[in-house]
Amino acid sequence: MKKVITLSAILCCFLVTSAGCSNTHGDGATISVNADSEYVNTFNDLHLGLLFDFNFRLPHADDRWVKLWVERYQDGKKDLEPLTQLSYGESPNEMEEGNIGFGIINPNQKDTSVFLYAPNIVNKPVIIENKTKETMTTWQYGISEDEVTLEVGETKILAAYHGADHSARTWDLQDTESVNKMIQQDSFVMLLKIKIEEKPTEAS
């Protein structure tokens, strides 16, 4: 019960502190790894699981939509639906800056759950079927702590959590061939992805 209360408090903190606006100029959305953030350190200190945290900057936030989702592959086969997903857009601010991320709670237990968060949004943790107990698991970011520009319409892999029966290795998440090999060779793969889209043009 104490862990549930603590997690609920942390999720509320995401809502309170992850949103913001900025007058910074620039046309392209940018994202960078925030591996030493307060959120990540709190997750580690409380042994809640894994948290992938990012600094995210979105110009023209009033005219754009952001989609964040997690795909899972098991024995090379993609699940029909994302494990979890969220989308948001058409902000009242022209520019927004804040944190986005992906959390895995109790990754090696039967009650594993996952959630996503973005400025002003935290979705409810979803319990997932866990088949990782007998595999060697590893996790990795797909980008670095340097800012990466996100083009409108581009799908970018931000992070991966994956495992194999006998060994686990890291892969180049920005190389399609490398990602495909990981999906085929590892027993399970979770991929965190992001995509930015322009607001649909209204018909005249």
Describe what this molecule looks like in 3D.
The chain is an alpha+beta fold and 204 residues long. It has one domain (2-197). 17% of the residues lie in helices and 42% in strands. It has helices spanning 2-17, 38-45, 176-185, and strands at residues 29-33, 49-59, 64-74, 77-78, 84-89, 95-105, 113-118, 121-122, 126-127, 136-141, 148-150, 155-164, 188-198. The strands form two sheets. Strands 1, 2, 6, 7, 8, 9 and 11 form a seven-stranded antiparallel sheet that branches. The chain starts with a helix and ends in a 6-residue tail after the last strand.
- How much helix, percentage-wise, in residues? 10-25%
Low-confidence regions: 21-25
CA(first)-CA(last) distance: 54 Å
Rounded radius of gyration (Å): 17 Å
- Please identify the structural class as seen in this structure: alpha+beta
Whole-number mean pLDDT: 84
- Name the helix and strand elements from N-terminus to C-terminus, one letter apiece: HEHEEEEEEEEEEEHE
Shape: globular
- Strand runs, count: 13
How is the secondary structure organized here?
Elements: H1 2-17, E1 29-33, H2 38-45, E2 49-59, E3 64-74, E4 77-78, E5 84-89, E6 95-105, E7 113-118, E8 121-122, E9 126-127, E10 136-141, E11 148-150, E12 155-164, H3 176-185, E13 188-198
